[in-house]
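Risk register update: the risk that structure generation would not scale has been downgraded. Supporting records follow, first protein first.
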Amino acid sequence: MRVKALVKGSGVGFYSTLIYGLGSGLEFGLRREYVSGIDAAGLDERFRTSPGITFFANEARTLKLRLQYNYDHSNDFGSEHSVWAQVGLAWGGSEVR
């Protein structure tokens, strides 16, 4: 589990990620994010929850397919839902990825 925090100016944000991987190349992930509002910039407080599933096509993890759902909420724009399909291709050694 990773938790990162950012404090800059008058805004604060953080996220936490949980990932569970299976030996078959599947990974299940859940990410939760929060960003505080900044009145001077006209930005409202915002929350996001993003569960996803990733399939790695080979053991080197150079080709992956991911399906992710996002739930965003802010008092400014209400609730929004989106689904993303992603393809990732990495080349070179792990030191350059």
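Supporting record for the second protein:
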Amino acid sequence: MSLDTLRDLYVDKLKDLYSAENQIIKALPRMIKGATSTELQQALQDHLNVTETHAQRLDEIISNLGERAKGKKCVGMEGVLEEGKELFKEKIDPEVLDAGIIAAAQSVEHYEMAGYGTARTWALLLGHEEAAELLQQTLDEEKDADQTLTALAESMINEMAADEDEMQDDEDRQPAMATTSPWKA
């Protein structure tokens, strides 16, 4: 596809977002399974349901432009998700993993917010008010997801991860226990 006009760039951005959403749909179940906090699992599950709606909205917007949604791969999201996947390759305490999952999920949300903000602005410039409203709705839902993750992190997850660090530091500072009593001759 040649990107000669703003419309071309807009369609390309929509297809990129569609690819990103579908990659997220595939990645979220692993994050849900890896999370130990039930509140985090529920927040991720709720967002999975919303993400499926986002992909459907994008498909509708792109179809209304007479284009096909498929055919583009969002390499940016692929990189963001790959970075998050690295957490699962590490030997990591469950509480720390939950904090890492939140950080990875927020990277995803911030990437999406940038993309949806751009697409919404271009839709308005091109006179696609209905599409702009749908893109704004998705942008608002991405912001809500980010705020939910922030609230979870600040209210409990980060605290639990920090407590895990303190316990590890305490263990590291404990002197090794002697196997025999120093008082025996």
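Residues 129-173 form the longest helix (45 residues). On this basis the risk owner (M.S.) recommends closing the item.
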